[in-house]
Structures are given as C-alpha cells and as structure tokens.
Design brief:
- 18% of the residues lie in helices and 33% in strands.
- The radius of gyration is 22 Å and the shape is elongated.
- By secondary structure, it is of the alpha+beta class.
- Strand 5 (78-80) and strand 6 form a beta hairpin.
- It folds into 3 domains: 7-61 and 203-229, 2-Layer Sandwich (Pseudouridine synthase); 68-201, Pseudouridine synthase (2-Layer Sandwich), CATH 3.30.2350.10; 237-292, Roll (Archaeosine Trna-guanine Transglycosylase, Chain: A, domain 4).
- The protein has helices spanning 19-30, 100-108, 131-136, 176-187, 218-224, 243-250, and strands at 7-13, 35-37, 46-53, 68-76, 78-80, 89-92, 112-116, 125-126, 129-130, 146-157, 163-170, 191-201, 204-205, 226-227, 237-239, 266-270, 276-283, 286-292.
Amino acid sequence: MSDSLDGLLLIDKPTGPTSHDIVQRVRRASGLRRIGHAGTLDPAARGLLPLVLGRATRLVRFLPASPKSYRGTLRLGRVTATDDETGELVAEHAGPLPPAARVTEAARAFVGRQAQVPPAYSARHVAGQRLYRLARRGVATEVPPSEIEVMRFDLRATTDPAIYEFTADVSSGTYIRALARDLGRNLGCGGTLASLVRTRIGPLEIGEARTLPGAPDRQWVEQALITLDRMPLTPPAVRLETTESTRRFRLGAAVPPAGCLPTADLLRVLAPDGTLLGIAESRDGLLQPKVVLAAVPPEEPDSS
C-alpha cells in the first residue's frame, strides 16, 4: 500500500448524508485530513460526488465542472420553503393542474442562457454567509441571480398528473430545485423537486462511481482511487523531455517546452515517464509553473 493517497475518488452518494458527511467518512477510512469534494449534492439527492484526496485538492479547480447531468422527478401543485419535498409546505394549488402538453412546452422554454435566483436554502454565499444559515434564522435576504445555462430540460408525464420525470443537462452553478420552482411558478400552480440523481459531470459518469461500504478502510480507498496521472483535468498535456527540465520545474522555475505548445493558457505538465508534475501557464514561449505537485511525506492519521 502506498504511503500517500493522492487522486480522485468517485462516490455514488446515497440520499440522507450531506456531501461533508461523505468527506468525513473517507477521512476516517483513509487517515487523510486533506480531502474535499467537487460539486455539492443536497442531502436528499443522490448520485455522482467526486472527492479529491491529498495533493489532488490543489487540482480541483482544473477538473471539468460542466455540463452536469441529472435525472429525477418534480411535483406540480406545491410550493415549499426549500423548493424540494424536504421543506415546509408554503402553498398548495387547489385547482386543476395544467395538461401535460402545456407542462412539457413550458419546460422547453428554460433551455438556453438565463439568470437564476438560487433557493433561499442553499450553500450560496451572500454578504459572507451561507443562504441556508440566514434562512434558518428567518433573515429575509435579497439574493442576486446567477448566470446559468440549461442545455436540456426534458419532461415526461407519469400516471400521476402532479408528477413528472425529467432529465437535465446544465452548467455549473445551476440549481435543479430552482428549475422545478420556476417551472411551477410559470405554470401558475407551483412546483417542487421530488427526487434527484446526478449522473454526470463532464466526462465523469455515475457508472464509474463507487458505493461506500458500511465500514470502508484505507485499502478500499486506495483500490478505488483514480491516481493523479489519470485524473481527467481540463488543461491539455505537454511532456518534458529531460530530467533537468523536470528538476527545474519541480523547483518552480520556468522551462522551455520540448516542441510547440498547445494553444491554451494553462497546460498539464508531465515528466518524461508520464508522471504529472503540475499545471503551468504558457508565457512567452515558456512553461511557467502555477501548481507544482512536489512529493510530500505521508500524513499522520486523522484522529477525528
């Protein structure tokens, strides 16, 4: 077993625990403190949750952030405080619900770039505080909208006229709860998210994710880990040709490329043997280190 665990761990998060709960379980299993996640999932949602371990925490911003794909169900005729079924009921539609043809047509109108107001109960920061913390204290907050893009929002009617199954492809930062809320608002009957599964983030798919066993250990984490060299980072790769260039890059010095540089501001730099050295900026024909993945000693086990 290796002394240090560095890389990407794809977890199929179950409904119930928070994303932070999953991080804590992997911390206890691996003995590592440096673990983060790329893309929060609400407790009521399940699906793909990428975790980054060890030195990979420095690379999380270079992982693909979108498009994100989801499937789930939404319920028309209800409005809740959280925009999903876990929240307090705020209003319930008394009249007939709109016909399926009108609902699916209204959903198609959401495809494209738009401004979206995040749910009141969300992890978005406003004035340095999480929205859900303000909402729990009863603090009314004006939430600025965010620019998002919806590539697909397809609905399918079920035998229950209030319940629709959906698939959605969206940009990073999009709240599916808010899509259900706004669809219901546009239809005049209200809407909430009933269930949600995240199936994809860029090239990462739920079929590659692992279900956490009841008592995972360090060996399980190591076997499930996608190593640094195999992480699907967005910058294109460039390989150094000499050990001297590798040594200088690891020391933080700019080095010349072996050939023509790919057309990109940021590049993934590999040693001659394919080992990932870090991320560099392409500047004046040189590779200027931005993130250097120097070898690190093993961490002491986390006692939390």
